[in-house]
């Protein structure tokens, strides 16, 4: 079995969010067996002051080292990197240099700061991204995978099946809709929604049979207001999910690099559940390299 994640980057910003990122990276590394971690902080050019008695990068590196010593309990090898530059551009360069499969990013809600960097990276990073909220369960017991039963969404199921311990409970979440022209059939909205649910259940049976996924249950949710992201998140909260997994949903290499609309909306409105967005790094890398040259 080939590991989906071997080398990961933890994007730190010298804020209280860093504690959460270090703790979650420690737990997740142990669960999936990461081989190498890079704790990276990029100092913006305008923040750098060479007149300090102790260089700012040394101060930050020392602070990160203390944080890691206290909160990182995994046996995974790690390095600490503090560099001067542009956070988004330099983090992308590090993804390429270190052949990173995964990047941990803070997902702030009440803490000072914003999530612009995470949103930007979600659309241009070739690797998978794990968005860590301000609070989370200290262990992963239940995982949900959003799926439309396409080949593109299979990556989430494969990750859970191959990388997560067998004692972790997993479930699929599928959102279905009633087409706008349903009334031409002469049936009511409720009647047609049952038809669409039955169709979704048939697709589910074909999906699990084709990929030998027997034993994983699926929740079917009607999207009655054109907001599938909200339905997926609500289902995850009701079922007390510890990790929500979605694929980038691209049906081409370029679309696989840039998030699909549902994944992007989940990222935008979710502040409560750790969110893993899976991307195919191999397919996306050539597009990523082209972006870096622009």
From TrEMBL:
Instruction: State the protein's name.
Output: Universal stress protein
Family statement drawn from the similarity comment of this UniProt entry = Belongs to the universal stress protein A family.
Cite a single Pfam family from the UniProt record: Usp
Q: Which species is the source of this protein?
A: Marinigracilibium pacificum
| InterPro entries referenced in this protein's UniProt entry, alphabetically | Rossmann-like_a/b/a_fold, Universal_stress_UspA, UspA
- The residue ranges of the UspA domain are 5-130, 140-268
Origin superkingdom: Bacteria
Q: Tell me the lineage of the source organism.
A: Bacteria, Pseudomonadati, Bacteroidota, Cytophagia, Cytophagales
